[in-house]
Specification:
Blueprint: H1 34-88, E1 129-134, E2 139-143, E3 156-158, E4 168-173, E5 178-179, E6 189-191, E7 204-206, E8 213-215, E9 219-230, E10 235-242, E11 249-256, E12 269-280, E13 285-290, E14 296-297, E15 305-312
Antiparallel strand pairs: 1-2, 1-3, 4-6, 4-15, 5-14, 7-8, 8-13, 9-12, 9-15, 10-11, 10-13
Main location: secreted
Domain THD: 167-311
Organism: Loxostege sticticalis
Length: 313
């Protein structure tokens, strides 16, 4: 038939084939490039060099601080030796503290309160005499009765039975919290009897309004103070000393910055502490003056205090 068309199906692809298609082959290239291996090697070298540098810096800092500690120890030993030689070189004959201790009777073990009578301080036992034996870095006190003939040329010194207690006077704030307003003199204060030397009120007197201190015994003093503020603003106070009819002398100044931590006001305590060495004369009136107005102060024990330590006459 002319209209017939013949359709030929290719023999290469069977229609009813039941064979499964072949599995696909997958190839993963796991070879690192040469550039990547060079980067890893470079990073390893840099890390190693950084570790070595850090170790060298740490050792240098440790050696520096160790050297400073050794130098400081040598200076302290030198100062101690000089102080001991000056003490032993004085011409005053004093009793010795190196006497045998006699155990008190069982009935006297009760602690006695501190009294004002000072007759016990004047009690001196029979002193022993000692000489100084140089042992290189250290010095040794040896009983003179055990002095060998080869040490006959060494000087013999007497040591006091009891060392004189230094004059220490400390005052604590007498109220918990106060606002200065337009007032400049910081106070009131109260004497700390636990720290102050016995009979210290005869050496440094507190005024009737508890704001001023009168020096009754002149000398070289260490003057120290601390004020705690409840504020977020800067603060400054001055320590003054003056004689009647004379211009005041500025002993020291303490200033603090502001509180930028954005804490609430009830937790914004700022402390300002200062210490100095000053020559005070008999009759000097000492006080602390606040520069800023309307400052709230915590005049509590352990927070705000003012004190004197006498070094020499």
């Amino acid at each position: 038939m002319d209209g017939e068309r013949k359709i030929h199906i290719s023999e290469g692809v069977p229609l009813n084939s039941t064979e499964k298609p072949a599995d696909l082959g997958v190839h993963i290239n796991t070879t690192f490039s040469v550039a990547s291996s060079k980067k890893i090697r470079l990073l390893f070298i840099l890390n190693f060099l950084f570790s070595v540098i850090c170790m060298i810096l740490s050792c240098s800092v440790a050696f520096y601080y160790w050297n400073e500690m050794v130098s400081m120890r040598k200076q302290m030993d030198m100062i101690r030796d000089q102080f001991l030689m000056q003490s032993l070189g004085s011409d005053k004959t004093q009793a010795s503290p190196l006497v045998s201790y006699q155990r008190p009777l069982p009935g006297s073990d009760i602690r006695q309160p501190r009294m004002d009578n000072s007759k016990d301080e004047d009690t001196v036992l029979n002193p022993r005499r000692y000489f100084v034996e140089n042992l290189g870095e250290d010095m040794l006190l040896v009983d003179s009765t055990r002095k060998s003939p080869r040490r006959e040329n060494l000087p013999v010194h007497d040591l006091s039975l009891t060392s004189k207690e230094p004059l220490v006077v400390q005052f604590n704030g007498a109220i918990r919290e106060t606002n200065m307003g337009t007032q400049s003199i910081v106070g009131p204060w109260v004497r700390d009897s636990e720290i102050s030397t016995r009979n210290s009120e005869t050496k440094i007197e507190l005024s009737n309004n508890s704001n001023y201190f009168t020096i009754k015994e002149g000398g070289l003093y260490v003057v120290y103070a601390q004020i705690v503020y409840l504020t977020q603003s800067p603060n400054c106070y001055f320590i003054w000393a003056r004689q009647t009819g004379q211009n005041p002398r500025l002993l020291s100044t303490c200033a603090s910055g502001d509180d930028s931590s954005q804490r609430p006001l009830e937790k914004s305590q700022i402390s300002c502490a200062v210490q100095t060495v000053a020559r005070l004369y008999k009759g000097d009136i000492v006080n602390i003056a606040q520069r800023e107005q309307n400052r709230t102060l915590w005049l509590r024990p352990g927070y705000s205090y003012f004190g004197f330590i006498k070094l020499s006459s």
